[in-house]
Structures are given as C-alpha cells and as structure tokens.
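User: Can you predict the 3D structure for this chain?
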Amino acid sequence: MLPISTSANPWSLSPTALANLTNFIHTHKISTVVECGSGTSTLRLAQLKAAGTLKQYVSLEHDLYWYHHTRTLLQTHNLPLDNLRHCPLVLHTFSHCVMQWYDTAELENFPADLILIDGPPGDLRPLARYPALHLLQPFLQPGTWILLDDYDRPDEQDMVRLWQNELPVELVETIDKRLAVLQVRAKPSLLTTGLTTTTPKVSIITTIYNREDFLPQAIESVLSQTYPNLELILWDDGSSDNSLAIAHHYATQDIRIRVVAAEHQGRGPAVAQACALATGNYIGLVDSDDLLAQTALTKTVRYLEKHPAIGLVYTDYIVIANDNSIKGYGEHGKILYDKNRLLTEFIIFHFRLMRTSIYQQIGGFDPAFMYCQDYDLCLRVSEVTEIAQLNQPLYYYRHHTKSISCEKRIEQIFYSKQAIENALQRRGMAEEYDLEFQVFARCTLYRKQVHKAN
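Assistant: Here is the predicted structure, written as structure tokens:
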C-alpha cells in the first residue's frame, strides 16, 4: 500500500483514524463503502479497490475546492476518478425535519457494508451529519457498519443518541475515543424515515417588538439546537425598526421558521396568539433578546420523555450583558422548586418547556395579562400537573436597560399581584388569606469586566 500524505483536505481522517479504517475493512471483510466526505480516506478506499479488497465505493464531497483537491490526489496515484462525486449541500425534508446535506439525487443505490461518516464538517452547524442515516437508508442493510469520526465532540454524541432512539442501530464500541462504531440491526423495511413519534416536535415561540440589535443572536441560538425537530414561530408585534426584515431573512434560509407580522397589541395578546399557532408536542418560549443554550431542547425533551407525570420542566440560567459577557448565575435557579412558594414568588424562570396538552388544558396564556403572563401561566400549570427543575444553566437571560424587566418593572409588580389574587380565588383560599404586597428595591453588585492592556 502506497503511503498517503496528510496535507490533503484538513477535514480528512487523521493518520491514526486512517489506519483504524484500513484495519476495520480487512478485519470485517468489507467490500462496499459509502463515504461522506473526501480526502486521504478516499485515496485509501481507491487503493483498496485497486488491490481487490473493495468491490465498490462512492465518496461524497460538497466543497468544490476539496473535490478537485481529492481528484488531484487520485490522479497523482494513477487511480480512477469515477467513484468521487461532487454533491453540493441542499435542503432535505424528512418528516418534520429540514436540514442541509449532500445532494444524493444522482447516486445509484447499492447494499453498503460500511458507511464512513466524516462530513459535512462539524463547523457547518451542530448535528451537521445527523441526516446521514436517514437519507442513506437505501444503502443500509442488516449488519451494515457505520464509522463516525469526531465522536469526541458532544454534538456527535447527541447525534448518536438520536439515531439509536429513531433507528435500529446500536453503538458497538469506540476506537481511540474519536471513532464511533455502530451497526444496523434490523431489516431495511423496518427502518423509519426521518423523525418519528419517538422524536417529539418542539414549538419555540418568540414574540418581537423592536429588537433588531439582539434578534439575530436569539434566532440563531434556536436554529443551532442539537435537537433538530422544531418549529420557530416569530411573531412581530408591529415593530418600527428592522426586526421584521430580520425575521423574514432567516425564514428564507430555514423553513422551520414561520413569521407573523401583526399590528402592535402588546406582549399579552401577542404571546397568546403566537402560541395558538404551535403544532409541536411541546411548547417553549425564547425572548427576542435572550439566547438558548445549544443543548437546551435535547435535555429538556429527554427529561419530559422520561418523566410522563411532569407537565413542565424548567432550567437554570446565566445572566448576560449587551455584549454577551457573563454577569452571574441566575438567582432563581438557586431556589428549589416549591409549589407553595410559587404562590408568592415567581421562582420558575427560563428556560421552560411544557407539554402542549397541558398548555391547552389550562387555556393557554391569558391575553389580559400585558405583563407577568408567564407567572400567571405557571401558577395555573402548577394546579393541574407536576413541575420539575433541571439544575443546568441552559438559557442566557440578557439584562439591559431596555428590557421589559427594567422599563416596566412597576407594571410587572402589579400584574404579578393580580396573578396571585387570581390563584387564591381558583384555589378557594381568598376567604382564608389576605395578600400583603410589598414593593421594594433590590440592589445587586456585579464585578466589572477589567480589560488589561497588553
């Protein structure tokens, strides 16, 4: 076997992974391979085919530069070029999921002994390689092996968990921590196509009013979730800045986004009407000036799926400034959930994910609440189901002078009083208890960010 230079595609397999691939092919008597990606591994596959070890292989490369680079490698070694295919990234729809992946329309299907996944590159987006097993289903057969490179990355590990939840594949072992070995266990007829009922759909609601400075980051934090089966409803409440244009811009790039342009009504009616459009099994809210941690949906959905008696789960959060610098750990996250304490203190903060069935059971958001509608909602949720706290900071709450919490603090206080009084009436406690409401200022010190000169 001729030596292979490592100066090819920087996304190519490392020399160690290349050696592991070669050993795996010989050990398991692999004869047919589908490769996602190209580079030195393509050259090795071509050498193995020329030597008679492989009968057939095909390599998919989306990047035109590296496609030609790999062609040059093959030509230098006097190897055929017809197994290397330029397959640009295009949008694929499978079930409720829409993601970019290789254009495989022109590929001829054949039973594959091995699927080698080393592309698209992970920096393209989280879970960039997730569509592979769904869209390569015609190549899969019982016993097909799957080698996944870069398994040391957290999003690749999340991806494998998704695959195992959705498809009859099993994680067999890992090699040198970076190479995951999986195997298809069922007949192709049993393979599901895309996301099924075992992967519930999540509806994320974001209401917008003049948030052009922060909106792009908020949207991108949702689109970059490691949990792909989601819809993002962007409800613009009559913004006078560029917020609506920004929302439409992102909607042209990802069909999971739905944009609604409405007349200005205020937060209460806006969030109630936006949530009425939700089609997911779960509903969550992300404010237009905040950020959702990349694994927030994966972890909260997983929790609710494992705990069917829980109707709402909420997480801890990090407080950030305008420039995304961290100001501190959210204080609400330090308080253990207690139903009775919730009656006088809004301890359920961001991020919250609830079952749509529970949301509908309680009648959704009350549009009469222009502020503190989430407090009123959580009080009503606590009366019909269990609530759980997930002690992980999965939300970034932006504290700035133009936030509702700062500009409408007094209004928030009086609407929260109304929420408590309504709860006392519903629970038959109004005759027995009087609500004493105290308004006071709380001062918090944050250490300044000190930038030292070089």
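The chain is about 30% helix and 25% strand. The longest helix spans residues 409-426.
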